[in-house]
Each structure stands twice: as C-alpha cells, then as structure tokens.
Amino acid sequence: MSGRHRTLAIAAPFAWMLTFFVAPLAIVLKISFSESTAERPPYAPLFEMGTDGGIAFQPSVSAYLLLLSDSLYFYAFLGSLRIAAVSTFVCLLIGLPMAYAIARSRPERRNLLVLLVMLPFWTSFLIRVYAWMALLKPTGILNNVLISLGLVDEPLPLMNNDFAVHLGIVYSYLPFMVLPIYAALEKMDWTLVEAAADLGCRPLRTFFAVTTPLCWHGIAAGSLLVFIPAAGEFVIPDLLGGPDTLMVGRVLWTEFFINRDWPAAAALTIAMLSVLLLPILAFQRMGVDTDRP
Amino acid sequence: MTAVRVGFPRILLGLGYAFLYAPIALLVIYSFNESRLVTVWGGFSTRWYGEVLANERIVDAAWLSLSIAAMSATVAVLLGTPAGFALARFGRFSGRTVFAGLLAAPLVMPEVITGLSLLLLFVGLEESIGWPNERGMATIVIAHVSFTMPYVAIVVQARLAGFDRNLEEAALDLGARPLAVLRSITLPLTAPAIVAGWLLSFTLSFDDLVIASFVTGPGATTLPMLIFSSVRLGLSPQINALATMMLVAVSLCLVVAAWMMGRRQTVSS
After folding, report:
1. What's CA A185's distance to the chain center, in Å?
2. Among the ranges B28-37, B65-74, B237-246, which has the highest mean pLDDT value?
3. Nearest Cβ partner of A134 from B30, B85, B100?
4. Cα–Cα distance between B24 and A130 in angstroms, integer?
C-alpha cells in the first residue's frame, strides 16, 4: 500500500476518535467548571466577553464542592466500586472453570461451546435484565415455584436489593470474563500441565500453581472488561436495585435527567473517570502489549 | 483420575450454561402465556405477538432502531477496517501506542460517560456552529459509530494477524500491483472479519439504551428506549413477545453469519 493510502487509513479513524471521543471528554472537563443555571443549555459560559472587549475566564468549582458537600456522592462511588469488585470476583469464580472446561474439551467441540458463551452477549442486554425481573419479582417465577412447593410461606425479597444487582451484573458480564481467559488458555503450553501431573502434582494444585499463572493475562483482561463497565452500570441498578442501591452511574443519570444539573453531572463524570483511570490505562496497556506485531 | 479431572469442570460448565440460558428460556416460554399476568401461566396463546405487531409505537421504534443500526454499522466498518489494517500491518508507526489506546478505551468506557460527553459535544457544536440543530437519528448514528468502530478494528486486526502473509508476498513477487493484491487477496481473506464486525456493530447499536438516551432528541425513540420505559412500569406480556422475536432474529443472523464465514473459509483456504 502506498504512503498516501497508509496515512489515510490511519488518519480517518484517528480523526473520528479525536472528534467524537477525546473532544467530548475535554468538553465535559470544561463544563464541570461552569456554574449551573436555569437557562438552555443549563450551564454558564466559561469564557465571557467583558465590557472592555477582553475575554474573562471564570472557572467555578461549585460543582465539585457540591460533590464534596453531600456524602451521597461518596457513598455512590463506594457502592459502585464494591458492587463491581464483588461481581468481578464472582464472574471469575464461575468464568475460570468454564473457560478451563472449554479449553480442555475436544477441539471440534470448542467452537460450538465458545459460540454458546457468546450468544447471550449478542442478545439484547435489556432483555436479559428483563428476564431476571420476571424470575426475581415478589410475584415472579422463582417465588411462585418456591411457594407452590411449600418451601416458603411468603415471597422472598429477591429483587430491588443489592443481591439482585450483583446477580444481574454477573449474569450480563460473564461472557466478558470467559472469552479472554479461554483465549489465553487456548494458547497455553499444556505440556507444562502434563509435566506437573507426571511429577505427581495433584490436579487442583496444578490448576492453581501452573494453569492460573500461565493464563494470568486472560484473567486480568477479563476482570477489567467486567469491572470497569460494571462500576459505571446504570440499567442494572435501576431495574433490579432497590431505592437504597447507590451506584454512581445511576446518580449521574438522575443528576442529568431529573435534576438537570449539567455541571454536577459533568463533575461526576470527571470524578468517575479519575477513579477508573488506572484500570482503564491498565486495560489499554494490555491491549497495546498483546497487539504488538 | 482423568475422569475426575475432566468431570468437575464439565459439571461447572453445564451449570454455567444453565445459568446463562434458563432465564432466556423462561422468557420465551412465558411469551406464549395467555394470561396478562406475565409470571402466572394461563394457557398457550400467541395473542401478544399479534398485539406487538399491531402496536404502531413499537413498530416505528423498531424501524428507527434498525435504520440507525444499519447506518452506524456501515460507517463503523468503513472506518474500523482501515484502523484494523493499520494496527496489524503498518508496523510501529509513530503514534501507534496512542492510536491503539484510543481504540481500546471505548471498549471499557462506562456508557453513561460516553453518552453524556457526546451530548455535551453536540450541544456545544449547536451553540457555536449551529449544527446539529436537532438531535435524533443523525446524532445517535455518530455516537454509535464512536463506540462500535473499535470492535470492528479489533476483529479485523485479529483476522489479519491470524493469516499467512506469504500469499500476499507471493502475489507481489509475481508482479501484482499492491492495490490488486489488496483487492483480490487481502480483502477476500478479511471479508469474514468485516462481516463479523458489521454484525457486531449492528447488534451493539440495536441494543444500546444508555448512549442513545443521552444524545437523542424529542422526535426519536429507539426500541430499547421504548422497552426501558415500559419495563420500568412493570412486566408486560407484550415485551416478552417482542423480546422473543428479537431473540429469534438475532439467532437467525448469527446462524447465517456463521454459515457464511464457514463457507468463505473453505473457499479461500
């Protein structure tokens, strides 16, 4: 390919991402330093033409002060990180053995097994959460079955609490954990596992001492793919969570759509990005490292 | 010994699949429920399917979502395919780290952040250059391209990294011009990844609720937005029927895609 074509192949997607991914984040940063107003759009301009013709730069930290003054925001962050961390760990507990079992199955079967993990990912996220609502509701399928079997007298509170949020996140993000771990296991040198077994290492010990460290890259990628979006999740806490389920994605949504406080929503976004920056950078680095030609 | 080693993960695998599929299966079963109460079985019926198809709001929203998905997937492929080529084939060009990082970040970026930041961009643009004077289909398409294009780039890159470069080098050695090589060897070999990338982008766009909710305007309600507002009010048998139709459509697309890719692969290899 000629030099001109190469430049274009890089420049076009690069320009798109700069315009519609980087620039928007810069604008969020800008608006987070604006005052909230009742106008349309509801934020004061950061730069204002002065009467003397000069441009006045009037940053305001009121949005950030608002975040600091109300402990609701702090607990929302704490709640998000806790729920995302617990859900990621549960995904790992379920996903690692699943990926292992797929990688150890007969080669001609593996593609089908991988497809079966991917299929739910291709079906609508909203529909999968809806399916759980039908199961977990007080008058839902699970409670109906439990009551008709006489196991419980009154419906169990399965929905509108943190338990349901964890369940929804684990269910929705499990494929993101299984696939990278499987990809790592598939490339792994299995003779090492056989060597450990030949030397008398027990299966479970081999799994933790040999297999797990060798697919560490897949585990890290899978965990980040689950943790970061889960920490910003809105739909699952909104539909499955209770009124006291505090997650930052939901607070941001409320701040923006209900309170119409755009500077506060922007400041929340910046705070969220700062908290998630390390994991996001870690994910980027991993991507760049593995993709190196 | 072998039986024990394989047996335990295999049981877990079975349980894992049961966990993934049982809720979906129940949703499909209850879509044929006669009763208005979604979770109480009242006999077999297909009446809710008829009601979905007769519901103008659902049909309009479905059309809007399908058009947005088709358009954004097409643009995502046009931009993402060259990006995948650049990552796989251009060696260590300057700025590669930034380029790869830019393409990796949207994969994990929480949707609320992408949605809010894009809306603020559109509002700012409207203030300064007067475009977009109305948010709706166009702004949703742009937003969707921004988060689906990286998926296309990754799928294309993986495919290019996986196949034999000797074919292209042989053609070049035999005197084929670079563009001819691209057209008759590289692109046909990459075609399955491009199709997969298009389908993936289409599904991601069709499925998106959060980003579209931020960047849409008063006139444009996509199918997920309609489902979300209805689900917030409670379960509805119509949603079960609609969900089942969407599941069947997606599964059919996947089967066709898998079949096509299998065929292309045997032809090309």
Report:
1. 23
2. B65-74
3. B30
4. 9
Give the residue from A114, A109, A122 showing the smallest Cα distance to A98.
A114
| Cross-chain residue pair A291–B157, CB shorter than 8 Å | yes
Q: Is A139 within the bounds of a domain?
A: yes
Structure tokens given for B153: 């780039």
What rounded mean pLDDT belongs to chain A? 88
Fold type of domain B60-222: MetI-like fold (1.10.3720)
Distance from CA of A69 to the nearest CA of B (A): 22
Spatial contact of B106 and B80, defined as CB atoms under 8 Å apart:
no
The range of the structural domain enclosing residue A146 comes to 70-260
Interface ipTM: 0.88
What's this model's pTM, rounded to 2 decimal places? 0.90
The structure tokens 């994990």 sit at B108
Task: Give a yes or no: residue A238 inside a domain.
Answer: yes
- Structurally, chain A folds into a number of domains equal to 1
Interface test with B, best of A30, A100, A141 (most B CBs within 10 A): A141
Q: Which one-letter DSSP state was computed for residue A199?
A: T
CB contacts < 8 A, A to B, total 263
Q: Which amino acid is at B244?
A: T
Domain membership of residue A16 (yes or no) is: no
The tokens of A5 are what? 């074509």
